[in-house]
Amino acid sequence: MIQLNSEKFKEIEKLLESSIQNGDFESFTVFLEKEDNLFVDGFINLFEHAQKEQIFKSLGAKNINEWFANIEKYNSRMQDPRNESPPESMIPYLIWEQSKLNLTNALRNSRLTANIPQKGGVLYYLGGMSKCIVLKYEIISDYPKFEIIEIIDNPKSAFDFWGIVNSTGLREKNILKEILSTGHKLIFHRNVLMHVDRRKDIEVFGPTIDTILIAEILSQSIYETSDLNVETAIEIGCGNGLISVSLAKNCPTLKTFHSIDINFNSVICCQRNLTGNLNPFHYKKTEILLLNGSYNASIFKTKYDLMVCNPPYIPLINNDIESFISKKDYFEAVGGLSLIDDILESLSLTLSSKGRLLLLVSSLSLEYTLSKIPKNYKYDLVFKEGYEVVFDVEAVLNNEKWLEYLLKQDGLLSIQDGTYYHKLFPIWIYKND
């Protein structure tokens, strides 16, 4: 679980303790329903609560996953006035009901504005990325009905459906295969619903576990704090748009936001997801500009309080992209460290005096990246030991020479039971005062 002890986390913690003591959850309910708090993940507080085991047992569930698997039954019991439950049993009920309402509104809005399918599946990342809930949905008379199909603990990859398919029951297996066959990928995280249509969004990357990780860090480190007044921001390489939408929708102080990607289809996908997530007044509150092209610091006249990038971070053999047979642009999107160089070399032109850059790299390129940070800038690692995820980059896995080259790099790429893993290192970079 990612838990960075944000201001919102502490506020929820106090509200919950007060509510449990006096049996009145009105203040907690008002907090959850407030528009500025709709992205807040109360499941983090629930999963870290000292009485979490007693809470779920009081509901009749053996553990958290059993509660999720039978959530409608347990919530119906909570609504029955004949049943008496301790005050703390209201916590999961209220958090889930608000989460379900948020997802309902997101699906309805995206159905109208972004043409998501009437039925399909959603991967809902919650609890500081400690769980991924696989939901089947069907929109009937404008309102979706949900069914939880599977619960994935500590997910290490996005859309790892096949691993679930091999270990679940026959009915769930058929539902998961049906979801896969649609070609639509939907992820819900921090009140942001992302949609990628693999039939139309050609060569659009993600959402990946990388981008979900960045969105979670931004939520806890930026949106849930009051001491960082971010007015200008940019994402370099927007891909499907998860991070861009997260910033535009959830950063409360944002006034100017820019996003750029070399792939035109990515810009279109990002624009569609912005439309599906933002109410019209957000466009009036925040100046949003999407650009198609290569990143070049000289084209931007703004100095940013926040820069975010999930760049290509896989070293190439002899740094020679031309040695690969497949499409050059595709390999450049996942391999090579030139974008890292470009961003770090131009920080004096792009980062404001109080600004911060959030750069995500791999264990394969961490040492290189740290060596390139200008001397007048500091850095902080969000995770000192890294964040382990599946290494599922097909461009590498399908290239025997490239994979062999990476495996020789001092164990920075590992293999366990036939699956490759690496560690992600989010880095905060800022000016040395």
Task: Give a concise summary.
41% of the residues lie in helices and 23% in strands.
Structural account:
This protein folds into three domains: 7-100, no CATH class; 111-197, no CATH class; 209-431, Vaccinia Virus protein VP39 (Rossmann fold, 3-Layer(aba) Sandwich). It contains 19 helices and 14 strands. The protein has helices at 7-22, 26-33, 42-48, 52-58, 64-69, 71-79, 90-113, 161-165, 170-181, 209-223, 242-250, 264-277, 280-285, 328-334, 338-345, 347-350, 366-372, 394-397, 400-407, and strands at 119-126, 131-140, 143-153, 184-189, 192-197, 232-236, 256-261, 287-292, 304-309, 351-362, 377-381, 387-390, 414-416, 419-431. Strands 6, 7, 8, 9, 10, 11, 12, 13 and 14 form a nine-stranded mixed β-sheet that branches. A five-stranded mixed β-sheet has the order 3-2-1-4-5, with helices on both faces.
Tell me what portion of residues adopts beta-strand conformation.
15-25%
Radius of gyration over C-alpha positions, nearest whole angstrom: 22 Å
Tell how many strands the DSSP assignment holds.
14
Describe the largest sheet.
9 strands, mixed
- The level-1 CATH class of the largest domain: Alpha Beta
Q: Which regions have little confidence, pLDDT < 50, spanning 5+ residues?
A: none
Q: CATH superfamily of the largest domain, please?
A: Vaccinia Virus protein VP39
- For the record, the CATH architecture of the largest domain stands as 3-Layer(aba) Sandwich
Terminal CA distance: 32 Å
The dominant shape is: globular
Mean pLDDT equals: 89
The CATH topology assignment of the largest domain is: Rossmann fold
Q: How many separate domains make up the residues?
A: 3
> Which class of secondary structure composition applies to the elements?
alpha/beta
- Helix run count: 19
**Fraction of residues in H or I helices:** 40-55%
